[in-house]
């Protein structure tokens, strides 16, 4: 059964408000969260009331108890007024709390949003925005990274998903390793052997599909997954971890290999001979891919490296020749970041207003949903009545069937409406606060990110940028006439 708990704790601001006579905070919060539970039909098994107002976990007995309980997997989720109520202050505490929630897969439900640790977006959001300041997040990440490296050096397998051919096991506390899945391992051996016998990744994928061997996630084998298998040292009993700072760490794993180290190396030799040159150039470096479009023709702008090591963004369509002038990527970056800054200001100003609108929208949806549910209930009663009418011979069998069919049709329509209604709710756009957090994240990290990360960040906050520029820069012109029309998500 799914059970939930409530965690109540005063913030410093609450304590001050109470001192001004603004009523008892915990009682008010308790009421709000119980209402929330009622609305979402959650069963509350326990309420943790933190009476002391210490910042650290050590000074918060109820928090310690709750952490223990969620670690034991007691609850599906915890209801709390805001995420910050869970941990504030100490970075280690925040790390502990984040980890406890993540590992026990316990949800956090606030009146504004539900955070599901199984959802990647939520987890990222949870970790690097609200919960910790950015600096703290970095510290924790560094510490976690150090812990991971140590674990890898000891031979632990610390990847999230075990590769095909293995399953994850924890033979002892703090030991994470793999165990062979014999029926899958057999095919891994085939993949290596076939490759050494001269088959390519495409042919191997085709053969596996022909043999009706199913991969774990996708419907069929693709050449790319075969190449990944061939290059994965896990299969030779090694563990590997990539870090930005220290490069790749390779150590002897605690798990058994499926192929020998010699065979694995032979495969790597052969792959090196066969591998096409690493593609360089536009697509990989162009972090404006799927973001920056030419205002004149509507096509994507291309990136062209310049002799001085920089790059330009330009439109290469014939129709734009002479009409659309290129600009340096640096200039485009500056303009985009500037527009993000402006957007943040704008959102800050509109925040309160937008909050009210979105609240009104969700209320309308709630009402609509209630109306549909009521109608469904009515249908249900009508259906029961039909049976009575049939039994008492008021209706003939034909009439009964006809009426039943009509009711069934109405029911299907209502259910479709109800579904559409829920789909609307989940498609809701980011709240202004969330949008600001993401935008701020881009501002803070853009400079140091690599091309791929930059592209991801841009795609997360911007739908489309239209580029126009008609005049070339030359020595007597001070200002560029470049214009970017940025559409935010
Ligand atoms: Zn163009």
Topology overview:
Elements: E1 4-9, H1 12-19, H2 25-39, E2 44-50, H3 61-71, E3 77-79, H4 91-104, E4 107-109, E5 114-115, H5 120-131, H6 134-153, E6 166-169, E7 177-180, H7 182-196, H8 201-210, H9 223-230, E8 238-243, E9 247-252, H10 261-274, H11 282-285, E10 292-294, E11 302-305, E12 311-314, E13 327-328, H12 329-391, H13 397-426, H14 432-445, H15 451-461, E14 462-468, E15 483-488
Helix pairs in contact: 8-9, 12-13, 12-14, 14-15
Which architecture of the domain at 4-132 would the CATH scheme give at its second level? 3-Layer(aba) Sandwich
Share of residues in helices: 40-55%
Could you tell me the CATH topology label of the domain at 4-132: Rossmann fold
Unreliable segments of 5+ consecutive residues: 278-283
Strand order across the biggest sheet?
2-1-3-4-5
Q: State the assembly state of the protein chains.
A: single chain
Content-based structural category: alpha/beta
Give the full name of the CATH homologous superfamily of the domain at 4-132.
Resolvase, N-terminal catalytic domain
Question: What's the helix count?
Answer: 15
- Average pLDDT across residues? 82
Main beta sheet: strand number and arrangement? 5 strands, mixed
> What general outline do the C-alpha atoms trace?
globular
Kindly estimate the percentage of residues that lie in beta strands according to DSSP.
5-15%
H and E order: EHHEHEHEEHHEEHHHEEHHEEEEHHHHEE
Radius of gyration: 29 Å
Attached small molecules = zinc ion
Question: In the CATH hierarchy, what is the class of the domain at 4-132?
Answer: Alpha Beta
Compute the separation of the termini in Å: 38 Å
């Amino acid at each position: 059964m799914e059970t939930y708990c409530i965690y109540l704790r005063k913030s410093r601001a609450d304590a001050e408000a109470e001192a001004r006579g603004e009523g008892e905070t915990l009682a008010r919060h308790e009421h709000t969260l119980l209402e929330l539970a009622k609305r979402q039909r959650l069963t509350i098994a326990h309420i943790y009331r933190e009476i002391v107002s210490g910042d650290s976990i050590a000074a918060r007995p109820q928090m310690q108890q709750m952490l223990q309980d969620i670690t034991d997997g007691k609850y599906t989720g915890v209801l709390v007024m805001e995420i910050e109520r869970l941990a504030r202050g100490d970075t280690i505490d925040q790390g502990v709390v984040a980890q406890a929630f993540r590992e026990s897969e316990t949800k956090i439900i606030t009146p504004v949003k539900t955070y599901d640790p199984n959802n990647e977006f939520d987890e990222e959001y949870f970790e690097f925005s609200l919960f910790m300041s950015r600096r703290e997040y970095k510290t924790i990440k560094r510490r976690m990274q150090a812990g991971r490296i140590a674990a890898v050096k000891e031979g632990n397998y610390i990847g999230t998903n075990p590769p095909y051919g293995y399953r994850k096991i924890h033979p002892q506390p703090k030991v994470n390793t793999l165990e062979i899945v014999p029926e899958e391992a057999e095919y891994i051996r085939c993949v290596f052997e076939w490759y050494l016998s001269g088959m390519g990744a495409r042919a191997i994928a085709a053969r596996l599909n022909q043999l009706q061997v199913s991969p774990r996630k996708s419907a069929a084998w693709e050449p790319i997954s075969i190449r990944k298998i061939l290059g994965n040292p896990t299969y030779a009993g090694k563990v590997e971890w990539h870090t930005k700072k220290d490069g790749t760490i390779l150590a002897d794993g605690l798990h058994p290999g499926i192929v020998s180290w010699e065979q694995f190396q032979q495969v790597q030799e052969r792959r090196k001979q066969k591998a096409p040159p690493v593609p360089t150039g536009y697509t990989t470096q162009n972090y404006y891919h799927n973001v920056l479009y030419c205002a004149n023709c509507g096509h994507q702008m291309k990136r062209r490296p310049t002799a001085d090591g920089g790059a330009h963004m330009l439109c290469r369509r014939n129709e734009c020749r002479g009409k659309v002038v290129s600009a340096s990527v640096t200039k485009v970056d500056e303009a985009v970041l500037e527009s993000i800054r402006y957007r943040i200001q704008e959102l800050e100003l509109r925040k309160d207003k937008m909050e009210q609108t979105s609240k009104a929208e969700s209320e309308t949806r709630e009402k609509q949903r209630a109306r549909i549910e009521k109608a469904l209930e009515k249908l249900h009663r009508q259906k029961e009545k039909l049976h009575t009418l049939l039994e008492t011979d008021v209706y003939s069998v034909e009439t009964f069937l006809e009426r039943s069919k009509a009711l069934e049709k109405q029911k299907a329509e209502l259910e479709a409406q109800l579904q559409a209604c829920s789909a609307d709710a989940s498609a809701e756009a980011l709240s202004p606060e969330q949008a600001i957090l993401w935008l701020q994240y881009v501002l803070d990290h853009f400079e140091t990110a690599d091309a791929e990360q930059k592209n991801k960040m841009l795609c997360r906050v911007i739908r489309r940028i239209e580029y126009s520029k008609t005049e070339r820069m030359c020595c007597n012109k001070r200002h560029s006439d470049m214009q970017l029309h940025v559409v935010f998500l």
